[in-house]
Amino acid sequence: MKSAFLFPGQGSQKVGMGKDFHENSSLAKEIFEIAEDSLKVNLRKICFEGPEEELQKTENTQPALLTVSYIAFKLFEGNLPDYAAGHSLGEFSAYASANTLEFSTAVKIVRKRGEFMQDAVPLGKGTMAAIIGEEIEKIKEVINKVDGIVEIANWNTHEQVVISGEINAVNKTIELLKPKRHVMLKVSAPFHSSLMVEAERRLSEVLDATNFSDPSFPVVRNIDYEIVRDKDMAREGLKKQVSSGVMWYPTMKKLMEELEVEAFIEFGEGRVLTNMTRKIARHLNRGIKVFNISNMKSLEETINEIQKT
Predict the structure, then answer these.
(1) pLDDT digits (tens, 9 = 90+) for 89-132
(2) Which of 44, 173, 258, 306 has the smallest count of CB within 10 Å of its CB?
(3) Same domain, 172 and 254
């Protein structure tokens, strides 16, 4: 049975994340210590105690999610996957787990990435909205009629697309589209849009100065759902990802249909990817198994279930 490891992005964080791992594993303590030494930030306090406003700051959210995902991966006792994928920030977690980036390096980079993304656009200029129940082609058609910057930021499932851009352009798109449902996202900037080009430029300089290695397992990257097997392709994908859309639905469709993956394990806080994976599988009529590892209990349950298969 082919497997894919999945790593979540922003939106999965919550106060208390990683605490159970930390209380029950010396390895988890060690990884948190490495992260804090690298960042010079009390990451454990932010993760375990919050307050939520502090954890929600992009420059804190990104290293927090990466650290907890990496711990979950390192505690897992299974074989390496056939493939991996990470949603936005989660792509860094995938590469850290695949030894493309050293963990201590990755955690510093994602904190800078968060700072660059936050600084790229003045507060109050951009926004994001999730469109639910509309075909992506119809959304693209409407976007093309709107003045100003509005773009596809995340193609999450067959029925959920996130748009990002200037506030007026995003609002006009929703007005013209008249979707069955939409949700304005509580974000501080229009992520994964061309308004992030300055963040991409600054991050590219950091990534060019960073040592990359070929991944120890293939990673399907966000920008074009191509399979990454070498370090240069990994670096280029991470650069472009900041201002490009996260093509999650095509990534999962490729994993399920073309690559015939039947077992998916989400590593880290929340169940966002687990839930989306199940929805996509039902839509594609694929019989799959989905697991989630976010604490010691779910780690044990996943290991036990996989041993049965």
Answers:
(1) 999 999 999 999 999 999 999 999 999 999 999 888 999 999 99
(2) 258
(3) no
- What's residue 124's pLDDT? 86
pTM: 0.97
E-assigned strand segments in the chain: 3-7, 83-86, 126-132, 150-157, 160-166, 181-184, 219-220, 227-228, 263-267, 289-293
176 with 304, same domain? Answer: no
Cα gap 279→226, rounded to integer Å: 22
Domain shared by 136 and 227, yes or no: no
Task: Indicate if 254 and 283 belong to the same structural domain.
Answer: yes
For residue 5, what are the β-bridge partners? 84, 265
Judge contact between 192 and 154, C-beta under 8 A.
yes
Q: What is the pLDDT of residues 34-80, one digit of tens each?
A: 999 999 999 999 999 999 999 999 899 999 999 999 999 999 988 89
Range of 164's domain?
126-184
Catalytic residues: 88, 192
Q: Are residues 29 and 75 in the same domain?
A: yes
8 A C-beta contact, residue 113 and residue 283: no
Six-digit token pair at 122?
Answer: 């003045």
Query: Position 137: which residue type?
Result: E
Report how far residue 129's alpha carbon sits from residue 161's, in angstroms, rounded to the nearest whole number.
Answer: 8
Give the 3-state secondary structure of residue 246.
strand
pLDDT tens track for 286-302: 999 999 999 999 999 99
